[in-house]
Amino acid sequence: MARKVFYSFNYAADFARAAAVRALVGVEGNASAAEKDWAALTKAGETTIQRWIDGQLANRECTIVLIGANTAGRRWIKYEIEKSWAEKKGLLGIYIHNLPDASGAKAQKGKNPFDGLQVKSTGAYLAKIVKAYEPLPTESRAIVNFIGMNLAKWVEEAIRLRSAYS
Prior knowledge:
Layout: E1 3-8, H1 11-22, E2 27-29, H2 35-44, H3 46-57, E3 62-67, H4 75-86, E4 90-95, H5 126-129, E5 131-133, H6 140-163
Parallel strand pairs: 1-2, 1-3, 3-4, 4-5
């Protein structure tokens, strides 16, 4: 049975890149918001955004942060990471900068979004615990194939790693 995962990513910059990963089998991702729904959600205010994220995270076993050029440091991505950790969900990152956006352009490699985030109970930094994978190929189809071959295994490992920090 496929694990239920939540995909965290910079919607405006990385929607097309994220779509390539979200289409892969082996895990069951959360529903993606349509562009008009996302625009309405962001205009509705912080409480509405937080409720939407919390609802999307419910009943998920792992959060996959799709790391683009500007993912690290974004407020809601940080919230999703911290909430996922607090709820004992597995966490992992996948760099997607080499996948094309809607116009076919690739991006610069972004910073690790787990850098600087600490586990409150131990003071350990998440970047030392949570793995962020960078696909070895640089051609789009090969990247997607590489992620597809490894995604379920990475999710299982993230869940195992998280359970060690209960």
